[in-house]
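Exercise: predict the fold of this chain.
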Amino acid sequence: MSENKNTTIEGQSMQQLVESAIKSEIGDIDMLPIAVAARVRDVYGEFMPVYTEMIRIKGNQHRDRRPAILPIDPDMVEDMLHFFSDYQHLTRAFKRLNREVKTLLAMDRHSEPHRYDELAESIVSGGGDRRSLMKSILEE
């Protein structure tokens, strides 16, 4: 049996799995600026195939098996940070994105338009000066 990397359990495509993971971890992203929603989909699109493979390996499952993975296991995400490879980069980007998008969703776009736009731009660009931006947002 050949492996189909675009199919997960129950015939769900990787794209469907990505969308399900986004809804599970962040919620509805349709109200976000289009570029931010696209960035969320890009990061999840890179992260989820690696995450599903790590779950499969940890469960000692056959290569053709795609494990059930939702909700995302925070312990597994933390374990992925210990790999010296692209996994660390993908996992850090995934965690940072979740944190920043949740902060953006909690902001009132109308009462803080400058900060909202600044954070949205930071998310789209992949970060920039994230620490000072996040610090100023959290201090308010």
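Check your answer against the key: The first helix runs from residue 14 to 25.
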